[in-house]
Design goal:
- By secondary structure, the chain is an alpha/beta fold.
- The protein has two domains: 6-157, no CATH class; 173-270, no CATH class.
- 43% of the residues lie in helices and 12% in strands.
- The protein has helices spanning 16-28, 74-87, 89-109, 114-120, 132-169, 185-188, 231-238, 257-270, and strands at residues 6-10, 33-37, 47-48, 175-177, 195-199, 205-209, 242-245, 251-254.
- Strand 7 and strand 8 form a beta hairpin.
- Helix 1 (16-28) runs parallel beside helix 2 (74-87) and helix 1 (16-28) packs across helix 5 (132-169).
- The longest helix is centred in the middle third of the chain and has 38 residues, at 132-169.
- The N and C termini lie far apart (54 Å).
- The relative contact order is 0.09.
Amino acid sequence: MKIPANGFTHAGKFHADDVFATALLQILRPDIKITRGFVVPDDFDGIVYDIGFGMFDHHQEPREYRANGVPYAAFGLLWRVLGPGLVGERQARLIDENFIQPLDLNDNTGEQNSLCDAIGFFNPVWDSKEDQDACFFKAVAVAKQILEHQIESANAVNRADEKVQQAYQNSRDGIVVLPCYLPWKNGLYKTDALFVVYPSQRGGYSAQCVTDYKTRRSKVPFPPAWGGQPEEILREKSGLALKFCHPSRFLVTAETKEDAIEACRRALRAAGRPVSAQ
């Protein structure tokens, strides 16, 4: 879809929905001119959203709903059309599920959402003489930064997927060893991977448990005796050069790659899982 030079949305109090919708249009066409008003001019030539009962409005019946029952608002309607071209179909769906749907739900039902509240604080207070449009575009500037980083992160995941898949193909016992830190959750979603080992930004190596996509819990957590222990005790209990184990037992850090891998192997044994001979 080609973004026209002009856009029109509603005036008055603004919300995260119209703010993020505007940010999306600005990302795709930085020179777009956005006009706010209470009635769409009959001769308006451009894209109309969150007003006007058109393709990108959600105030008319019948409403549009996602398969999971979450109703669309203007941001979601725009993202459905424009998002895949920015980040690909899979990442567009994930961004919709994890980021946009809560905003759409807030706009349609009033369900509490902290980001929506934060955007709402940009509205002038009742006795302010601030220009409402100026406040709106201040909020859009913030939303644009957030959305740009979302898009950048999604495309970074896309670039990493091939390397993650290659490491997964070479894994043993469900332990995936990455050549460097990569965003791996997308690539290992719904696989039988159990742990991911990668170089730590703090030096040494990290080993992290893969979360079950249904329960959202670690498939195989590290042993209970390791969690939250001081380094000296952790080394004594594990018999490895470990530096840290998170109290929730989903992450350990080690001095070497070998120690990080062995920590995963010992977690497997402690859970009664099979471990191949080295």
